[in-house]
Design a protein that fits this description.
The protein is α+β, with helices and mostly antiparallel strands. Among the domains are: 99 residues, Beta-Lactamase (2-Layer Sandwich); 100 residues, Beta-Lactamase, CATH 3.30.450; 128 residues, Heat Shock Protein 90. It contains 17 helices and 21 strands. The strands form four sheets. A six-stranded antiparallel beta sheet has the order 8-7-6-11-10-9. Strands 2-1-5-4-3 form a five-stranded antiparallel beta sheet, with helices on both faces. A five-stranded antiparallel beta sheet has the order 13-12-16-15-14, sandwiched between helices. The longest helix is centred in the last third of the chain and has 67 residues. The protein is flat, with a radius of gyration of 53 Å. The chain starts with 10 loop residues before the first helix and ends with a strand.
């Protein structure tokens, strides 16, 4: 077998592999140690937070219980009732009042049972459901209070007879006298720890298989467990651990040690625990979790990290080997591959865009490659085209030099722009150029995909001409509409004047004649003729009033004489009176605006008011007129039923009315918009530029 010479050994890939492997191992190890410390710190912080929370809650609970003595002793009812009852224990009324008081203590202060003793320590009244039993320890507390006249809050205590666990609260009932207070009686309150204290201690705020909280106290040479444990039953005030077991967390707690520690628990299992002393109580709290539970996620992450590190090392080895093989291959083909890649990418675009002109040029804009479409469009032979530059086929009088967009294409990694190219025969045609630069090491090539857009430009020109024709037609239509409105208003004014000058005068003369005839008849003939004359006069008055209304509807004289706001007030007053609703007109008298604009705004407001009355069922309408710098704004708002604007043409009459308002606004160079929704009324807003 032929030995490999030192010059053929791939030292660089081997060095890269070693460096990568070392970096991966160090990074994985640092990540593992950091995550381990983070998880342990997180669990320690969690234990400390839970311990602190429970300490505060227990301290508050003890303070609240001890504060009850102030409430009880400050109650004048209690002493005034108990003193005469102790003198006469057979008084049923006083006994019932005292029992009611004890019931309130059980209901509102969470005392399981209560007992009343006289000053000699004899039981007088008991409030509890079960039989009354007192062990020696309880009676000693009563005697101690008799001697000291001071309240006593006992430790957790297991009754010797019943075996139940209580906390006794013994309170003296004192009668203020001089020189010393007189003891009237003693009140014994019992607290059942199973109702609040034990459930609260045993609860844990997060899911956990081994976490628990427990209370201990120092009892002689032992650490006494005050509550039942998660992993052992019936341990409250019965399980003890000698203080000589200094590696046990419960012993550490009663010995005065505080903080987070790693130790063993009552089972001998390694744990992480937070130790705290409860203020104003002989109790100590231990919040703990098995060390195995803490380190389980650490072991899982260590396993995954090992797998990842091994995989990365294998990947680094494979990558190093591949790099070495590729370096050997590319070292032989480097020069040939550079030109081949440029031509390969060029011909990929050539295949995709074969219907367009495709030109490849160097950084000096010399054409080095072109497709057959370029030969057909420009009229040069293939050889002639390769002797040209991009500047030769670009129009010489272009406002932007052709090199500038190509330079921008190099900066922006591609650019699309329009220009004009020239054929061999001198004719020009518009083109769209999509240019991008192809880089190979230090060399750059411009690839341009050129599309003849002569037809598109022709269509764009025709579209612009059509748009201009439509714009001109719209202007003519608007002018015609305005002229039609002016003619209509002129005709209305003429008809109103004719009615006034002819029919009005004739009706007035007819009224004078009828009144004269009425005055000429003798009284004997008046009985038959007078009713006919009166009926004729009434018909004459109604006809005259109808003609006046027709004249006002055709062309209100107040609009010509006093302007828009006055005409709106006149019309709204008549409409409100006839329709039985409220119409508010706001707006100061404006300077006179062109008559066509005043007429259009009045007719729009008239249509909007009629729509509000007939179709919206409005009870209140507001009309506002505002004058701005070059604009008059009219707003008509109602509290009617409203409508869905997309369906406003469902009612044919209403749809025509809305369209008419918009056309009148457009005729004077303004705009009209309508805002409405079902149940929220309607607003018609018109802006006329004058």
């Amino acid at each position: 077998m032929k030995k490999q010479s030192p010059s053929n050994i791939p030292w660089l890939p081997l060095l890269i592999f070693v460096v990568l492997s070392f970096t991966i191992v160090i990074t994985g190890y640092r990540y593992y140690t950091t995550e381990t410390a983070h998880i342990i710190k997180q669990k320690q912080d969690e234990l400390s937070a839970i311990a602190d929370l429970k300490i505060k809650q227990i301290a508050w609970w003890l303070k609240e219980r001890k504060g009850d003595v102030s409430v009880i002793l400050s109650n004048p009812f209690l002493v005034r009732t108990i003193e005469p009852f102790l003198k006469n224990p057979h008084d049923a009324v006083l006994k019932k009042e005292i029992l009611d008081f004890m019931a309130n203590l059980a209901t509102y202060y969470d005392y399981n049972s209560s007992y009343l003793f006289d000053s000699g320590g004899n039981l007088i009244i008991a409030y509890e459901a079960q039989a009354v039993t007192f062990d020696t320890s309880t009676m000693q507390l009563v005697k101690q209070v008799i001697n000291t006249h001071a309240a006593i809050f006992s430790n957790l205590h297991k009754d010797e007879q019943s075996g139940k666990i209580y906390i006794n609260y013994v309170i003296p009932l004192l009668i203020p006298t001089k020189p010393a207070d007189l003891l009237a009686g003693i009140l014994l309150l019992r607290i059942d720890p199973y109702e609040f204290l034990y459930p609260f201690i045993q609860s844990w705020p997060t899911p956990s298989k081994t976490s628990e909280t427990l209370l201990v106290c120092k009892d002689g040479s032992d650490a006494l467990f005050l509550n039942d444990l998660r992993h052992r039953a019936h341990t409250a005030l019965s399980m003890r651990i000698p203080l000589t077991n200094r590696d046990v967390a419960e012993v550490m707690a009663v010995s005065g040690q505080e903080g987070v520690v790693e130790a063993k628990d009552y089972r001998g299992v390694p744990i992480v625990a937070a130790l705290r002393a409860i203020p104003d109580a002989p109790w100590f709290l231990v919040a703990k979790v098995d060390k195995d539970e803490v380190y389980t996620p650490i072991r899982i992450r260590a396993w995954w990290m090992s797998c990842i590190v091994i995989s990365l090392i294998m990947a680094a080895g494979a990558t190093s080997g591949l790099m070495w093989r590729r370096s050997q291959y590319y070292s032989r083909l480097y020069e040939a591959e550079l030109e081949k890649q440029a031509l390969s990418q060029h011909y990929e675009y050539l295949t995709k865009y074969a219907n367009d002109i495709i030109v490849l040029s160097d950084q000096d804009l010399n054409i080095i490659e072109a497709n057959q479409r370029a030969v057909e469009i420009y009229g040069y032979t293939y050889e002639e085209l390769l002797s040209k530059t991009i500047k030769d086929i670009d129009r010489s009088d272009a406002s932007v030099p052709v090199a500038e967009p190509l330079e921008r294409a190099a900066e922006d990694n591609g650019l699309i722009f329009e220009t004009v190219h020239v054929r061999k025969d001198g004719t020009t045609f518009p083109v769209e150029v999509s240019a991008r630069i192809i880089r190979r090491e230090e060399r750059g090539f411009y690839q341009s995909i050129i599309r003849d857009i002569t037809e598109r430009k022709h269509i764009e020109n025709e579209r612009e001409q059509l748009i201009e024709q439509i714009r001109t037609a719209n202007a003519q239509l608007q002018e015609l509409s305005l002229r039609l409105v002016e003619v209509q208003e002129t005709e209305r004014r003429s008809i109103a004047r004719e009615l006034h000058d002819r029919a009005g005068q004739n009706l007035a003369a007819l009224g004078i004649n009828l009144n004269f005839l009425q005055s000429q008849f003798h009284s004997k003939k008046m009985d038959k003729i007078e009713p006919l004359l009166k009926h004729s006069l009434k018909l004459l008055e109604e006809t005259t009033e109808s003609i006046r209304n027709v004249m006002s509807d055709l062309r209100p004289a107040v609009l010509d004489d006093y302007g828009l706001v006055a005409a709106l007030r006149w019309y709204a007053g008549n409409l409100a009176l006839s329709a039985g609703l409220t119409i508010n007109i706001t707006g100061e008298d404006l300077p006179r605006i062109p008559l066509a604009a005043e007429t259009a705004l009045f007719r729009i407001a008239q249509e909007a008011l009629i729509n509000s009355v007939k179709h919206a069922g409005a009870s209140c309408i507001a009309v506002a007129v505002e004058r701005q710098e070059h604009c008059v704004r009219l707003r008509v708002s109602d509290n009617g039923s409203g409508f869905i604007q997309q369906q406003r043409t469902a009612d044919q009459h209403q749809g025509i009315g809305l369209q008419t308002m918009a056309e009148r606004a457009q005729a004077i160079g303004g705009n009209c918009r309508i805002e409405s929704s079902p149940g929220h009324g309607t607003q018609v807003i018109v802006e006329a530029f004058v």
